[in-house]
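Fig. S4 source data, part A: sequence.
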Amino acid sequence: MIKAPLNITTSRSQLHPFHIVDSSPWPLVASLGAFFTMFGFGLYLHFYSVGYNVFLVGLVVLVSTMFMWWRDVIREASQGGHHTTYVRKGLRLGMVLFIASEVMLFFAFFWAFFHASLNPTIEIGCVWPPKGIFAINPWHVPFFKYSSISNFWSIYYLSTLCFISGKPWRYFRRYLKYHGISRILHNVTVLWVCFSTF
């Protein structure tokens, strides 16, 4: 039998350092909410009058379940004392493995794309892109999306610096000095892309 080391924080009723989760209704409720959200959306797309109401009920159930489930996890960690050193290490390792699996998934997607584009098969006419498929102009909508995301993250970084430092005007002046012209050019470019595309 594994005994808990004395230097870790455990609750009074817990005899081991690992967290055995209590039974919870939230996985079942979240599954039902997701089912009714997608079912209602499908009904709505097929012009059933009840579809919109079913979609809204499922969405409300899903969002409220997220808040309730996170509330229980926060209570387990802060008030229950269940997140011991071993549990926190396990949560970190789980997040690292999740990110690694996402990296491998995107690597597989890009590998398949490059394999198909660099060595097109006879089934698609030995040309890339295949006949009948027209590539998107990268200087229109993709450029607009990328520039919008970069603009958002620069503003987010500025607001974080201002919030942490307690001296917002110093960072704001520095931001305007170094990034003001590029932001103005960005906004003009976005407007040009919007008007020329649409």
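Fig. S4 source data, part B ends here. The radius of gyration is 26 Å.
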